[in-house]
Protein 1
Amino acid sequence: MDRIEIIRPDDWHLHVRDGEMLKAVLPISARLFGRAIIMPNLVPPVRDLDDLRAYRGRIEAAVPKGSGFRPLMTLYLTETTDPADIRNGTASGELTAVKLYPAGATTNSDAGVKDFKRVHKVLEAMQEAGIPLLVHGEVVDPDVDIFDREAVFIERVLAPLIRDFPALRIVMEHITTEEGASFVSGTGENVAATITPQHLLINRNDIFRGGIRPHFYCLPIAKRESHRLALRKAATSGNAKFFLGTDSAPHPVGNKECACGCAGIFNAPVTMPCLAQVFEDEGALDRLEAFTSLNGPAFYRLPPNEDRIVLARTAPDEAIFRAIDVGADGQVVVFRPDVPFRWSVEKA
Ligand code: NCD
Ligand code: ZN
């Protein structure tokens, strides 16, 4: 099989930022994906429907002409989120999901939730409206080892949340552990997970191979090899609970290569070459379409995209790995794991 045609993919977890950065990175995703769930962790975050509409307008203005790309908008859950915004955003169709960042868990998460009791009313409104809660699943307790934060989150936060809101639709975003994958597999229909390309390709050793590699640093951080293998199994299993969320998260190179570098990996230009490689190596190319283009829409109760893309088994053009210029912000470095790339996007 040297060429495969699949339904156009969607990205169920994407950071496109704002301003010059938005203009530089959005067209890359818009050329490939039909839709993307837009993360709300701007500074300040997307907190209410007015913020959401204004941000959607700026995104739509950055979509290249002729692209059918559609941003699916989210609100950033804070302790002051108004349940009325959930009801109104659902009724108007403007709101697709709500993002939960435990305060301090990752880049731009300071406004996140500290006390879960304070968001009960909002979660009730979401449960009622069928609006998914997208969870950054890491505890922030400094006593918990960074490599254990996801597993501890499942035990301390996620499982109780599901007990309190059994019908709430939940996506555990960017799972990185065997515990994450098995928890999601073993829980009801209303709980799903996204998986990123990087967590299928790198483990924690790669972050330190030959020196510290800031462009392999993201949160949740890559875990040991056994977890990477469990994620590859989940993603390529065909189980409809697992789908693609790239978590493509651009940062100017100066904010990555410095004394205290930001978390976030920019993978948008190489998503499909990465995934085709993983699925081929797992003998599961026939399940790639389910992961990128079918399971996500099914969970979000949307139809799959109508058109198709073509992938070809030829090494991708070097140009896709070239850093992106973002004006005054400098450049953004593209994710490039130390693996052979044998697939490219022939037609998008
Ligand atoms: C994201 C970012 O840069 O906004 N960073 C990351 O490492 N994934 C935030 C997030 O999704 O955690
Ligand atoms: Zn993210």
Protein 2
Amino acid sequence: MSHMSRLTQGLHGEVAVPGDKSISHRALMIGGLAVGETAIHGLLEAGDVHRTAMAMSALGASVKRRDGGEYRVAGRGVGGLAEPSSVLDMGNSGTGVRLLLGLAAGHPFTSFFSGDASLSARPMQRVTAPLSRMGASFLGRSGGRLPLAVTGAPDPIPLVYELPVASAQVKSAVLLAGLNAPGATTVVEPRPTRDHTEIMLRKFGAEVVVEPLPEGGRAVTVTGQPELAASDITVPGDFSSAAFAIVASLIVPGSKLTLRRVGINPLRSGLLPTLREMGAEITVTTLNDGDGEALADLQVCASELRGTDVPPERAPAMIDEFPILAMAAACANGTTKLRGLGELRVKETDRLAAIARGLEACGVRVEQAGDDLTIRGKGRPPPGGAQIAVELDHRIAMAFLVLGMTTQEPVGIDDAAPIATSFPQFIEMMNGLGAKIERESAS
Ligand code: S3P
């Protein structure tokens, strides 16, 4: 169903965005490996996380929702998952499938994974390569793509693995497989990526050691075969969802918005320093740690933004925020350079191409050279007036709807359904704050 976003007069109010997607996946998976019953408060109730909940149930964990939205996961213990009797359809969820491949790789049974057209086009070899070295075997399409079968290792081999790409999904897949291996499994990451897996494993009682490396990287080691104890998890608001409301408030004149209890893990929230460099007025009030995850209330006021240069080293800490940052850059005064964006090509769609194409259609000058994107802002919103093909990508859909809030001509998207994979309340929440996002009639 296509939607369009029209010029709005300002966004105002106070909201809490839904739970963090990355942390929600991990809570279900690690809860499923613990001994006892894990309670999860604030789990993200969205398509991707539902897929993981269903998959964990199929693998033998019991996942139940209570009235009021709390989830209970009865775990099977490390190494205790059971062979699923049907194909695990992971929908659109790259995190779901890659982390579950790690879990399945450490269990001696065969499971089958499938996904939608977007997920089936994404590379899985980045996880199957290290997991094969731990003793698992895989049968998939060319490039190791889904649908994919995995037969886990009866005796997984601990591994020392240097990540060829900065990817928290690959790191987490190897660490989760390493849970069932005797001895230490180490992932060396040249650039630190989000550490939600490490934080949560520790919370459940695993031994996880993180060593800084000379060039800024890290070595993360998990000791295998721990007894994980069920825990109580409160999931923070998703910074990646909050990012859409943050940028919307910055670029729609007159806006003032407060976002409550947002996760601001420093390895996730690289958008904040970037926006500040652009002149954004954002007040961060830190709150007590939520389960080792940094938490804050954020207050955002409409601001006059200027162009900036985002260094490639910062990319992993804001990898999901480039689509929405690009919308801010399109309204800023001057040139913004986004560098080291190679990984955007293998997200839910080729985001590098989708951002460039969409912005050009909205009247913005954009240059793409290799993995870098240059966006030339004019200090006022671009004309808009384009219809964007979202290609099953929730973040492309939300980013362009945000741009349409400040352009003279509306910005449309051809399909709003993918938004439900991460942020089902997005349209209703933004409209509640003053946005004008409407369903387009099929005429
Ligand atoms: C995620 C890691 C990132 C990110 C994705 C969630 C995670 O992917 O883009 O949305 O939860 O570990 P990569 O690890 O492939 O960069």
